[in-house]
UniProtKB/TrEMBL annotation:
Assigned keywords, A-Z: Transferase
The protein's name: DAHP synthetase I/KDSA
GO function term, MF aspect, one: transferase activity
Entry keyword annotation includes Transferase: yes
PANTHER family in alphabetical order: PHOSPHO-2-DEHYDRO-3-DEOXYHEPTONATE ALDOLASE, PROTEIN AROA(G)
Organism: Candidatus Competibacter denitrificans Run_A_D11
Coiled-coil stretches noted in the UniProt entry, renumbered to this chain: none
Positions of the DAHP synthase ferredoxin-like domain: 1-74
Pfam families in UniProt: DAHP_snth_FXD, DAHP_synth_1
Domain DAHP synthetase I/KDSA: residue ranges: 100-347
Length: 371
């Protein structure tokens, strides 16, 4: 059960103290307080943990300062929608809005290799009006002898170049809690020229200690990738670890699931789950066509498979696209064969925009018919 307080209630309010004292005395129930910051407002939510079936929502809702009470219908208590359309959805970070109602594109390098390539990428993004990118500094690899990323040594020039070209948010994977500290320290040392969205990769989906550590920090939002070999429900429960530790600024990313049924693509594209995630949770939903498809193969119509996959996700309502680009894919240290060229950036962005228009037209049709 979730008790949502009025937006003007603070932890110093008498109503807050009274409500928390009352709820804390309920037998067999423990309480956990969360501050939820959305794009327009911030709310205090009190989570009642235990057997809440016998509790009266009407009595709790009548407490001073309580706006409403929501009964939980799924295991993911904080991130779940729970059939309540009024709860805050989305968030604002470093001037960029992330919600279930808009669309952001994160085109960039899967792995940072040279300052020259980073600058070419960011310069191209600015020329196309983009303020977000992906830059991999820490790279978990299947083979221990494969390139593992430049790690903290590349952070200064990545952040400084982001500031130079007006990039506001960089999606960057972390595999250890010390990486979060290194990112924070480097941002401070370089004067906070940009922002970082921490990425939890598919291999770490159920690394629960890492999820707890990343969830405990409030500085950075999180891009959480679905586990490639587990169910959607298992991945959602894993994402809940982040929110349960205090950070509910989470974007859920679909990146394909590992099965030979997806051949010849790298993974079986799972973008039909975009509307499912938006129905079950309040998280913005991302699609990663690069790691789903894993190649630059073209269909007879002249479109790349990964562009078709992107369009499928966007037409289904995706709110973020994470895609690999590289100035010289043949020289890329990670996943070069699937990276698109900078000369193809205009085409890709226009194709995404066309798919978004299609989604918005479908939305309008649903409102018109209202069946």
């Amino acid at each position: 059960m979730i008790v949502i307080l009025d937006s003007n209630i603070t932890e110093h309010s008498q109503e807050y103290q009274h409500a928390l004292a009352y709820l804390s005395r309920l037998p067999g129930i423990s309480t956990r307080v969360h501050k939820v910051e959305g794009a327009q407002q911030a709310l205090t939510e009190i989570y009642l943990i235990g057997d809440t079936k016998t509790l009266s929502a009407e009595e709790i809702g009548a407490l001073p300062g309580v706006e409403r009470v929501v009964r939980i219908s799924e295991e993911y208590r904080i991130l779940g929608r729970h059939r309540d359309e009024q709860r805050i959805s989305g968030f604002d970070y470093n001037g960029v809005v992330f919600s279930q109602d808009n669309l952001n594109v994160f085109a960039g390098l899967c792995a940072v290799d040279t300052p020259e390539h980073v600058e070419l990428m960011m310069k191209a993004l600015r020329e196309h009006g983009q303020v977000c990118t992906r830059m991999g500094a820490y790279k978990p690899r299947t083979n221990p002898y494969s390139f593992q990323g430049h790690e903290k040594t590349c952070l200064p020039y990545v952040f400084e170049l982001a500031g130079k070209y007006g990039i506001k948010v960089i999606a960057m994977e972390v595999t250890h809690e010390r990486h979060v500290e290194e990112i924070q320290e480097c941002l401070e040392q370089t004067g906070q020229p940009t922002g970082v969205m921490l990425q939890i990769g598919t291999r770490n989906t159920q690394n629960f200690e890492l999820l707890k550590a990343v969830g405990q920090q409030q500085a950075f939002p999180v891009l959480f990738k679905r586990g490639f070999g587990i169910t959607l429900n298992e991945s959602l429960n894993a994402a809940e670890y982040l929110a349960s530790e205090g950070n509910s600024k989470v974007v859920f990313c679909l990146r394909g699931v590992k099965t030979n049924m997806g051949d010849p693509h790298r993974n079986l594209v799972d973008f039909s789950h975009v509307p499912v995630l938006k129905r079950l949770t309040r998280m913005p939903v991302c699609v990663d066509p690069s790691h789903s498809v894993g190649s630059r193969e073209r269909a007879p119509d002249g479109l790349y498979d990964l562009m078709h996959a992107t369009a499928q996700g966007v037409v289904a309502g995706a709110n973020l696209v994470l895609v690999d680009f590289h100035p010289a894919p043949a020289k890329a240290l990670v996943d070069g064969p699937q990276a698109m060229l900078l000369s193809e950036l205009s085409w890709f962005l226009d194709d995404v925009a066309a798919a978004r228009v299609c989604y918005e037209k479908r939305q309008a049709l649903a409102e018109r018919y209202g069946l």
